[in-house]
Structure formats: structure tokens, C-alpha cells
Amino acid sequence: MRIAMIGTGYVGLVTGACFADFGHTVTCVDMDPAKVDALKAGRIPIYEPGLDDLVARNTREGRLFFSTDLPPAVKDASAVFVAVGTPSRRGDGHADLSYVYGAAREIAAAADGFTVVVTKSTVPVGTGDEVERILREARPDGDIEVVSNPEFLREGAAIEDFKRPDRIVIGTENERATAVMAEVYRPLHLNQGPILFTSRRTSELIKYASNAFLATKITFINEMADLCERSGANVQDVARGIGLDNRIGSKFLHAGPGYGGSCFPKDTLALMRTGQDHGVPLRLIEAVVSVNDARKTAMSRKIVAALDGTVAGKTIAILGLTFKPNTDDMRESPAIPIIYTLLDKGAFIRAYDPKGMQEARKVLPDVDYASSAYECLEGAHAAVFVTEWDEFRALDLRRAKALLAQPVIVDLRNIYRPEDMAAHGFLYDSVGRNRIERT
Ligand SMILES: NC(=O)c1ccc[n+]([C@@H]2O[C@H](COP(=O)([O-])OP(=O)(O)OC[C@H]3O[C@@H](n4cnc5c(N)ncnc54)[C@H](O)[C@@H]3O)[C@@H](O)[C@H]2O)c1
Questions:
Q1: Hey, CA dihedral for 400, 343, 227, 240, is it positive or negative?
Q2: Listed residue (320, 306, 208) closest to 256, CA to CA
Q3: 84 lines ligand 1 (CB under 6 A)
Q4: Which residues are known catalytic residues?
Q5: Which single residue of 38, 47, 380, 432 could bond 228 by disulfide (Cβ 3.0 to 4.6 Å)?
Q6: pLDDT at 437
Q7: Cβ(268) to ligand 1 under 6 A?
């Protein structure tokens, strides 16, 4: 089967490469010539474990192509996936659909023969209807069906998620489109990957409901962490105690600095706006959004408190910048507002991240970047763990203590155990657990 992937960002590149690996012939199109040139030269613009090998192999075997030229890719394809960005619209938080609609217009002009246009981008309920209207208006003669097929992959585990998904959601009630989609996903279907066929609108909403539910789980445990700190309970044990209940489940119950990343912040906001537009205010989601926003400031306060109430003129070592480990994605990372608050209060920030520093430099120019965790700690008045990269889990604590100007650690990911830190003589604060004070 011939597939065109419009938009070769995180989702487009991973999905395109995985479809090629199934045996389909895939052309990934992007409007950014620098990105396409890099991919043609074998350079992967993002960090995602295993992606470089997957792209290299499928390119070599003649199934995966990159291009800036949309029309020929669309003309030959039976399925055209739209995987362009849907960022928050400046000012009101609605999903900005201009890239999706722009892509639809270009596809309309180029489609030839029966073409299934598949929206992979995360789009508000009803967007498929508008995409269909655009296509029909531009090509009254066209034989085109619009399908919703949201993507659930997690950055850092994207290939594994694509190849062994919990579910594939396909929103269409059209028989011919169903047949094409079944063919696209046949290898997963043969592998017992559960495919859920729904109406298009339902499929669009499943994606937002899913992300909003996960964001709610994180926010819930973060509020429990605050209560644990005040009441002397331990949030990790609370999370375990509730997570072992199968009705709740243990995932997404790690207390921390608040959710970030390229999806949850914008998707919760967009869902909130969709609810308001439909006269159904989603008060739970509104609370989640505002609690999560407040959390970044609360984390900065925690760091300031660990430094006896003032950070002016002090050096703070930030370990981890990306919104989660195993990605270089800095979009909406909690590290950004935390660092800006500390800079505003006069702190000097030195940071280290295993993969994210190139991206971080673009959004955090006033930070001094170290080339290793230990170099980052040298002479700092406190170390703060913001992202739980594996390499931070096994630091030589004796060496770390010797490098720091004073033994203060704020662990926003609960990487270490308070008892161990006490034994090493650190003043240690974490999230939702007992703080170790100066005795
Ligand atoms: N990143 C994730 O983890 C993730 C997971 C699930 C769903 N999603 C959703 O998938 C969509 C894409 O996300 P992303 O993170 O891959 O975005 P991205 O910003 O990394 O990539 C989007 C790409 O689309 C290109 N583009 C825009 N308009 C185009 C056009 N008309 N023709 C060709 N290329 C065009 C851009 O140049 C860019 O490279 C979003 O709706 C997002 O919410 C993302």
C-alpha cells in the first residue's frame, strides 16, 4: 500500500517509519526543507530510541522516502495521513487548526482516485467534518473519505508503542475507508492489536478524553503529595496503595513537578475550550489545568525554601531539562518556568541534560550548560533533579557531596530515598515525603 504522511515531526516520522517497516511504501512530506534535507542525509532531527535504525533500514530497503513536494506523494497514495502540529492558539487555548486545514487544501488539489485522508493530529471533536467540507468544496469531483485515527504513542517509547499498541482507534463509518484502514494496520491486527472502530467524532474525543484523564491522574497524585507533606504521610506509598487496586492502576501516579510536554498542556486546555463552546463546562479539567499551572511556582518555592529563603547570587545545579526522560523534547517542560522563576529571583543556573541541551538552549538562553552531571554540581549551592533520567539514579553521592558548595538536594522526581540521603549527610527535600532538615 502507498501511504503519504503529511507532517514529518515527532508523530509523522515515527508513524511513517513504522508503516514502512510493516512493508508499506511511505513518503513523509514536510514543509520544512531543512528537516527534509537532514532526513535525506540520514540525520534524525529528534531523539527517540531506536528511530535512527528504523529510518535507516527502511530508507535503504526502498520503502521510506522524504520530500517537500506534497502533490506527487498524495497523488500516488491510497491513504494520506495528516500529522501536522495542532498547538494552542495564542490567546484563547483553542487548538490551532490552521496547519490541518492548510494541509487539507493541499491534499484536495492533489488527490487522485479513491483517497482516504486520515487525521492523525490531535483535533477537537468535529474537526473531521470541517476537513471534509474543505475537501468537498475544493474537489466536488473528488473520491475522498475523511477518517480519524488519533495517535497515542509516548515520546521515549514511541516505536514500541506503535508496534504493540494498547489499542488503535479508527473513526469512520464508511465501508471503503474501513477496508483501507484495516489494510494499513493489517500487521498489527494479525498480531492481535485491538482495533476499535467508532464514529469519527467519537474517535476525535477519545484522544482528548484519554490525555485529560492521564493529566488528571498526575494532578491528583500531586495534590495528594502536598497533603502528604503537611500530614506526615508518604506519597509513594499512597500511590502504591491505591495503584494496586486494578480499578485505579499504578501508572501515572508519580508525584512530581506537574505534567508538561507537547501534548497534555495543550490538549487539556483545548478540551476545556471545546467544553465551553458546547455549553458543557468541564470543571474537573479546568481544575486540573489551574492546579498544574500553580504547581510550577510551588516547585520554585520549594527550591527557594531549601536554600533558606533566598537564591539571589547562589548557583543552582539543575539536573534534567526535558519534560520526561528519553526524549530531547523541551515543549512545555516544567523545567522552563521553574528556571525562569529562579533566574528572576537572582539565582545563577547551571544545567545538565543527557539529550535535551540543544533544544533547551533555544528556550533557556540565560543558563550555563554543563557537559556532565558532576560538572554541573561543581560549586553549586543546591542540586535540583527535574527530570528522572536513568543516569541520575546512580550518581556517586559521595562525589556529588564533595563537589557541591553545600549539601542541599531538591529531588522533584523522588529518585532517591530520604533515608539514604540522610545517611550521606544531605539536606534533602523531595515531593510528598518527609523533608530532611538540618539537625
Ligand atoms: N508528540 C507526541 O508525543 C504526540 C503524541 C500523540 C499525538 N500527537 C499529535 O500529533 C500532531 C503532531 O505532533 P508532533 O509532535 O509530531 O508535531 P511537530 O510540530 O513535531 O511536527 C509537525 C510537522 O508538520 C509540518 N507541517 C505543518 N504543516 C504542514 C504542511 N501543510 N505540509 C507539510 N508539513 C507540514 C511541520 O513543519 C512539522 O515538521 C499534533 O496534533 C499532536 O498533538 C503528538
A1: negative
A2: 320
A3: yes
A4: 263
A5: 432
A6: 65
A7: no
